[in-house]
Amino acid sequence: QAARQDADAANKAKDALLASVSHELRTPLHAIQGWVEMLRDAPMNAERRAHAFAVIDRNIRAQQQLTEDLVDLAAALSGRMSLELEAVNLAPLTEQAVSSAVPGAVLRGQTIIALTPPIGCTVNGDPTRLLQVIGNLISNACKYSPDGGTITVELRRELSHAEIIVRDTGDGMSADELPYVFDRFHRASTSTTRRQGGLGIGLSIARHLVELHGGVIVVESEGPGKGSSFIVSIPLPAFAPGKAVTTAAEALMAAPPPHLLGLTILLVEDHEDSRDLLQSALEMNGAQVVAAGNSAEALADFDAGGVDAIISDIEMPDEDGFTMMRKIRALERLTRRAPTPAIALSAHQFSSAGKHAVQAGFQRFITKPVAPGSLVLALTEMLHEARHPRH
Q1: How many whole angstroms separate alpha carbon 217 and alpha carbon 161?
Q2: Pairing between strand 309-313 and 342-346?
């Protein structure tokens, strides 16, 4: 009987999750589809068009966040989530997370305050994942705070660890609820919080990422209606404090990347809309684009010569991007050409994809969806490194 009850509970939880996923995916799709149809079919003034594009952008970002959370959850459950560790100064990272959250907070009349120490606060961590943790906590604080509320994001440097504290003036939590805040699929049970939507996995992912960094995350609340505080502790490394840290982005700013003007880029993408988007972004930055829809077309275009860089999808019909790149590298060796800088794109975030990409001959691996500006930045940085290799 106990086993049967456990099975029934598991089935109910699965059904509830599937219903929530369906709702959270369909809701932004409804807004996106509706406004796209109105933009296409109905005349609009400039103000209405700007509003339509803002709604579409907001809902695309919401759906993208949901998808990324589900991918991260799957990686965490299977033990495949890994970190790319480097020295990370948490002060600019915290300010970046706050800056990203400000536009959404402004729409709700909320205020986000960032408090960072004047000296450096450097840890050994994955900057992308740490930014995700801080962003998740700020997003959660905004979600459960009233319009006009205040969210404070404070960074402290202690003797042995760095602390990131995110406080809100929102719903707060009872003592009975506190132990379950970081459980997967946990959502508060009041009618107000049900209106917020979401799957209840953002805080679970944040805890998993913090623990991968050797840290801990806790939550404090004086009770319903009295707000909450989430405290993240990340251990400090054993090197001298205040040491200057140069990130990839800072290095890129110090040595501006070459412009794409006059460069020929081979773009390989079987999805027509994705190919059109990336081609437009590259051409707007001055590049000449040779577009191919599959591996065979790409090999023929490359063999014709004149290609300065390659951007290729991995999942394609008939022959994937890994196989195509191996053939290109073989052709280069045969004709004694220098290796052409290449970026691999993939919608699948499997853990070994980056390793397979490098083994096939790519220099970079980027997970879709990728913002056009980010792709152009990665491309120009890669070309800069090819022209000025480190010795």
Answers
A1: 12
A2: parallel
What distance in Å separates the CA atoms of residue 229 and residue 221, rounded to the nearest whole number?
A: 6
205-224 pLDDT, tens per residue?
Answer: 888 899 888 889 999 988 88
Counting Cβ atoms within 10 Å, is residue 111 exposed (0-12), middle (13-18) or buried (19+)? middle
Measured from the Cβ of residue 367, the count of other Cβ atoms closer than 10 Å reads 16
Q: Tell me if residue 53 falls in helix, strand or coil.
A: helix
Q: Is 233 helix (H, G, I), strand (E, B) or coil?
A: strand
* Residue in 363, 373, 369 with CA at minimum distance from that of residue 325: 363
Residue 240 has pLDDT above 70, yes or no: no
pLDDT band at residue 250 using 50, 70 and 90 as cut-offs: very low
Which residues touch 299 (CB under 8 Å, ≥6 apart)?
324, 327, 328, 331
Tell me, yes or no, if the pTM score tops 0.70. Answer: no
Mind listing the pLDDT tens digit for each residue in 261-307?
A: 889 999 999 988 888 888 988 888 889 999 999 999 999 999 998 99
Q: How long a stretch of residues is the chain?
A: 391
One-letter amino acid identity for 233? S
Tokens of 344: 């691999």
Q: Containing H/E element for 217?
A: strand 216-220
Per-residue pLDDT tens for 330-372?
A: 999 999 989 999 999 987 655 567 788 889 999 988 877 777 7
Phi–psi pair at 226, nearest 5 degrees: -115, 15
Closest CA to 357 of 344, 348, 368, 375: 344
Beta bridge partners of 231: 165, 218
Give the type of residue at 153: V
Closest CA relative to residue 365, chosen from 351, 353, 347, 350? 353
Instruction: Say how far apart CA 101 and CA 138 lie, in whole Å.
Output: 7
